[in-house]
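protien #1 (seq + structre)
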Amino acid sequence: MKQDRILIIDLGSTMNTNIAREIRALGVYTEIHPHDLTNEEVKNLQNVKGIILNGGVNRIVDGVEIDASDALYNAGVPVLSVDHKGAKPWPKTVEERQDIMKKFILEECKAEKNWNIDNFIQEQVQLIQEQVGDKKVLLALSGGVDSSVVAALLIRAIGSQLTCVHVNHGLLRKGEPEEVVQVFREEMGANLVYIDAVDRFLEKLAGVEDPEEKRKIIGNEFIYVFDEEARKLQGVDFLAQGTIYPDIIESGTKTVKAVKSHHNVGGLPEDLQFELIEPLKMLFKDEVRECGLALGLPESMVYRQPFPGPGLGVRCLGAITRDRLEAVRESDAILRDEFKKAGLEGKVWQYFTVVPDFKSVGVKNHNRSFEWPVILRAVNTVDAMTATIERVPYEVFDIITERITHEVPGVNRVLYDLTPKPTGTIEWE
């Protein structure tokens, strides 16, 4: 890392991520590290200009208040102690915290504002080239933001040495498989292997109603398909993953229990024996998007909405059928199109449709109909732990309802989910 670096030492604070993001916003690179770094680990961290000991409510572990290691106190750089050993806690407002951090980081530590995405890309390209040499890299390219940005970065660094595998399991949104092929194979010249596994996945999912069982089947089948394709390739030594910084943080630290396990590809067989490449592992989500734009990816891909791993499989409620799955896909496309026209595309955090496995009586073309409802959901959130409902104008609902009931086969009603999180969850399954 050529950029100057500030270390945030986790001593039980719940503010580590906030502080890291605020320091990066100042143009200075920062990382979160555990409190017990060794002399060797500290020595291997380059360009460290200062250390922040960030205490907090979780600083008591097994009845003992943890402290930073001697290696950190003796690192020979300025140290700022917050909410630790009598030090005052961070101010509650961002403006006050930034004033403290500016004085410490820019004046006392004399760190330079040399953290930006262009520098990051340049450095990662060099690191990837050094790591890979003339060998080959494999990437599971879902079309999501993280894997797409990794693909674009690797294409810039090693070109045809990268092989991307895109598995179409039939549960993607309308136009997404085609966009992956267009952007990466046609526009960026990637070596892309496209796998049409739609029938294979839907056959495995036939008759399965339980959401967790559906997730398990989709996840396992993806692994099997990817593994089969990987074994067909010769001389691949590296596996690239779209791991980002929140994945690592959420995997837990020595003072915070894991939110979820850090595992992007998910359970690949150990005998694949790949060495990992994770070039985005120190970026936050907004930085990943900025990186994607700088690498030339289209905004439609970079600002792709959050999408569950099982895709539309958990929005086609109950046992998945092809006709109801298409109703989800088509109604979702209409919703996204009309939200874009209404100026809601960048305003609302996530919006999608759900089609349940029941029908109701209606009237279409002057005849009785017995068809599915489509449920619309649009929520706003900061951290996905809680969510509020977007108050969509009724004139927008009118257009969406008209289009869905007339353009989507098998649908005669449109409903809007008004439930915040809690008590509901963002997804239905």
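ok now protien #2
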Amino acid sequence: MSYDENLKGLKGWLVLVGIGLVIFPIRLGYLSGPLFYNMFTDGSFEYLTTPGTESYHPLWKPLLFFEASYNALLLIASLVLLFLFVSKHYLFPKGYALFLFLPVVILPLDLWLASLIPMGDDPLDPSTLKEMVRSVVAALIWIPYMFLSKRVKATFVEGKSQTGSMDSEQTTN
């Protein structure tokens, strides 16, 4: 299958994807870095996770480790995706779709876990709701684009075995 050469390249709507991939790790580090650094260095973590303290709850430790691990995974995944994007690797569209889908599942799970801890605060605060809506909208827009766009199919081909794709085309014809 031959694609028009005008469709190849990190142009069109893919520019927005690229900008998002550059901004995401910076934004994540800016928002989460100080939060988790302070939590693990100023005694907050111990206060929340030590039996006998006023704010102790047995779910704090797993929730905080889950959130820190998830944020670290997102940071690493975003950097890997940025590399795949710039190198136009064939795995990028599927990896990016998964990257966009995970928050749609993980954020409600995280919210549910947080709701099990009596905090006095509503876990569904405006910033959390905004983040959930942002994740769903991004997934609804960009996941179909990754699988339906002719530009995506023409651009992300590096690393794909040419003989493997030719063999599979011959067996279907």
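Residues 163-173 have pLDDT under 50 and may be disordered.
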